[in-house]
Amino acid sequence: MHELTRWLRSDFVFAGIFLLVIGAANAAPNSVLKGKAMSNEDKGQWKTHCVGRLLIDLPSDAEYVGGSYEYAFATVERQSMEHSAFRQEVDKLEAKLKEGQHKSGSSFLLAKAVPDENTQIFGYWANENRSSAIEISGYKWLQGMRYLIHKRANYEKMERAVSRMGTTISMLHTRDASPPTAPGFCVERAIFADEGRSGNESLNIRFRLTKYPDVVVDVATNLNAGDPPESLLSRKPGVLSALGVLGATLGGVRNIKEGDRKIGDYPGQEWLMKAPNDHGQQAHLFTWEAPGLHADELRPQIRIDLQSGNFDGGLDPKPISMTDQQMLQLWDKILNSLRLRPTNGAKDSTEKKPSQQSNSDVLPLGELVRTGASCPQTGYWQCPENDIQGSTRLFHAGDTMPPAIIKRDLSFVERLRGSSDQHSTGTVWRLVRYEGPNVTSMPMSPASDDTIQPPSDA
Questions:
Q1: Which residue of 110, 180, 241, 450 lies most exposed, with the fewest beta carbons within 10 A?
Q2: Contact at 8 Å (CB) between 64 and 207?
């Protein structure tokens, strides 16, 4: 099931997601499972984890494997290191940027800010040919951990982008094992302490059970930049169509449970199945999805997956360690534990959003805006992808800039799962034309840069 594992670790895209439910009630259990059951100790020892703005309970032996995070339109990475190594890393980067020569004749390094001895922020060209998009990297050392916050910005907005990075990185604080009570977005061993608003945030993380190493739990959330995605079970016809062709080859895809399932305040759907993995074993694939609400940090898209028979990361293939009944018990307990993290001051999601930006000031052509941000200028905006809805589209000031929707070929596993062939991805929109004949054209931003690529989804 290596292909499935790679897919589970890929960036979080709800429009193309479809995973699940368990199999064969009449399937004969593996001989090694005879007499084996989860002990009372296994059932009784659980630990609460903070994931984004949510809490979820997992068995105490569940180890964090890794994942990806995005916050305030920036990716977030963590690495364990001593403070001396942190200093060496940022000094080495600064020296490299100063040595690099841009086509304008300047060095790659454009701006630097040092808010304190544990924080440094750099604005720089990624290569000698860039003329519009620059990189903004914020480094922060917190109690033996180096955090790297990275985003892309418009060259003309560099000063503001560096300032905003300073604001974002100043909100990052370490946290202990217990769930924090202050509002904010939890990442690995830290939290962005905010007031419940970020404008953009997502995570896709994995845990593995030590006592049952073939069993993994994946949790993913994503703030809806556009309309909520298509529901899980509405994609089922595509799956059944694919199974009509592939069923004989797969030999034993078994669907045992599906339907609507509301967890707390989050309406969603689940689909559980059992299917052969890469080693010919009948492995469990369970998924629950909640579509969330538009632009609501407290009600994002949510996906939870539970999988057996996962041997990625160099693990030796072994028999599936849990029976159907054990997996169902584990699934129900994990799923029912999902809830919004209580805080001592979070803003209610019904609070009104800030008023839309005024369109009285005409922005220059070439202005860049990322998916999820508010459109600053009525006009025609273009993205580098071949968007099925049109790569050049009219947006009005105050509109939320959408992701790009592109067609893609589906893999065997994706067809089995019923994944959509329409892939939603964050992008960078560039203002290319004003609306109407009465708008006076402003000077073009630094020459249009065809090398600009949208940031990866996280």
A1: 450
A2: yes
Residue whose C-alpha is closest to residue 240's, from 415, 413, 411? 415
Q: Are the CB atoms for 287 and 216 separated by under 8 Å?
A: no
Range from 107-121, 353-367, 371-385 carrying the lowest mean pLDDT? 353-367
Of all residues in the chain, the percent with pLDDT exceeding 70 is 74
**Tokens 């079970």 belong to which residue?**
233
Q: Please state, as a whole number, how many other Cβ atoms lie within 10 Å of the Cβ of residue 435.
A: 14
Model confidence, pTM: 0.70
Exposure of 128 by Cβ count < 10 A (0-12 exposed, 13-18 middle, 19+ buried)?
exposed
CA 429 to chain centroid, in Å, comes to 20
Question: How many whole angstroms from its chain centre is CA 198?
Answer: 14
Using alpha carbons, select from 49, 69, 19 the residue that is nearest to residue 207: 49
Distance CA 300, CA 71 (A): 13
Bridge partners (DSSP) of residue 142 are 145
**What CA–CA distances, in Å, run from 224 to 284, 297, 404?**
29, 8, 13
Closest to 273 in 3D by CA, of 318, 328, 220, 229: 328
Spatial distance between the Cα atoms of 83 and 242, rounded to a whole number of angstroms = 53
pLDDT at 448: 32
344 SS3 class: coil
| 139/86 Cα distance (integer angstroms) | 9
Residue at 150: amino acid letter: H
- Note the pLDDT of residue 239: 62
Q: What DSSP state is assigned to residue 27?
A: S
Tokens encoding 183: 């509002």
Are the CB atoms for 271 and 232 separated by under 8 Å? yes
Residues 161 and 169: their CA atoms lie apart, in Å, by 12
For residue 192, the 8-state DSSP code is E
What number is the average pLDDT over the span 336-365? 62
